[in-house]
Design a protein that fits this description.
Layout (H helix, E strand, L loop, with lengths): L5 H72 L8 H25 L4 H19 L3 H17 L9 H27 L4 H22 L6 H26 L4 H7 L3 H12 L6 H23 L2
Helix pairs in contact: 1-2, 1-6, 1-7, 1-9, 2-5, 2-6, 3-4, 3-5, 3-8, 3-9, 4-10, 5-7
Length: 304
Amino acid sequence: MDPIAPADAAQVVSVAPATAPATSARARFGPVGLVLAGGISVQFGAAVAVWLMPRVGALGVVSLRLLVAAAVLLVVCRPKVRGLSRADWGTVLIFGVAMAAMNGLFYQAADRIPLGAAVTLEVLGPLALSVFASRRLSSVLWAGIALCGVALLSGGGFGGLDPVGAAFALGAGAMWAAYIVFSARTGARFPRADGLALAMGVAAVLMLPLGIADAGAKLLVPSTILLGAAVALMSSVLPYTLEMLALRRLPNSVFAVLMSLEPAIAALAGFLVLHQALSAVDALAISLVIVASMGAVRSQVTGK
C-alpha cells in the first residue's frame, strides 16, 4: 500500500464519514447480489436445457455442459498445476466429484419426476446444511419457513413420485450441500477461479464417458453444441464463478438458505421462457422462500 501524505490523510478523514456507510453496505450485500445473479443465470440456463434434453438425453446434456464449461474456464484462467500440495489436489478432486454428481443426479431426477418436485427435493440439501452449519437459533426458524415454501412448490406431497427419481433428487441435494462446502474451500485455496477451472475439468472427465454412452454422435451436431455452450455458460461458468466469489465473504449457512430461492427463480424462468403459469399456491410458496432468505441475510448482517 502506498503511503498517504499529510494532506491526503486529512482528505481521507474528511470524506470517511460520508463514504463509509456506502462501502459497508456494499461489503454486506455484495455477496448476496452475486448469489442472486448466479441463481438467475443457472435457472434460465436450465430452461434452455429443457430444449436440449430431447436431443441428447439427460447425461448427454450434463456431459456437454460440463465439457464446454471446463474448456472455457481452463482457457480463461490457465490455472497452474505445478507446486500444488496434496491437500490442494484433494480439495479440487472432491469438488469436481461433487459437481459431477450434483449435475448428473439432478438431471436423472428431472428425467423421471416433475421438475418442480425435483428442484424442491434437491433444495433440502442446502437447507439441512444451513441448520447444521449455523450456530444461531434464528437460522432454524428461517430454514423452517423456507422448507414450508419448497414443500408447497412440490404440489402437495411426494407420495405419488417415482421413488427412483425422488432418490436421485435427494442425492443431488446432498451433493449440492457438498458442493457448497468444497466451493468455499476451493475458493480459499486458489486465486481467482483457478480451483473452479480444475474442478470443472475433473467433473467433465468423469461425466464425458457417460454422456457418450447415452448420446453418442448426437453430441457432435452443431446446433446441439451451440445450445450446450449456452447451457454451459449460463448454468455452470457464470453461476459457479459468482458463487465461489460470494462464498469467500459469505458464511455457508447464509449461502445455503439463499439457495432456497432456486425454486422461486426456476418458477420465474418457467413462466417467462417456457410460458408455465403460476398458481396461487406457487405464489405463496415463492413468498415464503423469499421471506426466509431475506430473514437469513438480515440475521447475518445484524448478528441477531
